[in-house]
Amino acid sequence: MTLPFSESVTKNGFVFISGQVPLTPDDKLLEGSIEEQTHQVMKNLQAVLQKEGLSFADVVKTTIFVTDMANYSKVNEVYASYFNESFPARECICVKELPIKAEVEISMIAAQTAK
User: Fold this and answer.
1) Phi and psi torsions of 24, nearest 5°
2) Which of 38, 56, 34, 60 is nearest to 47 (CA)?
3) pTM here?
4) What is the pLDDT of residues 34-64, one digit of tens each?
């Protein structure tokens, strides 16, 4: 089934990356701790960034969705480990549920630098 969205869209020097959930490379929802799920989401985002010739250093904005705010500090710790010093702007929103029963989803906006 083709879903009605793009993995990423580039416009005016920015790359908008659709929300990523903890899907493994074989398109199965990762069963595991919230930390393991968050690592998988970040790996998925990293793969999209790399396809665009970018890295986490180019990310300027993120949105994190969680289904339980009790997981906030665990998600935050894993998320922070993927950035060096300059963290992007972001928000974390608690929602009732996410697609395919995921517990965390993260979207990003990255800025392309002049080459």
Assistant:
1) -80, 170
2) 56
3) 0.93
4) 999 999 999 999 999 999 999 999 999 999 9
- Given the structure tokens 């985002």, which residue do they identify? 45
**Cross-strand partners of 94:** 66
Among residues 48, 60, 92, 109, the one annotated as catalytic is: 92
- Whether 92 sits among the annotated catalytic residues: the reply is yes
C-alpha 63: how far from chain center: 8
Give the tens place of pLDDT for each residue, 87-113: 999 999 999 999 999 999 999 999 997
Q: Helix axis angle, 72-80 relative to 34-51, nearest 10°?
A: 40
Q: DSSP class of residue 54?
A: -
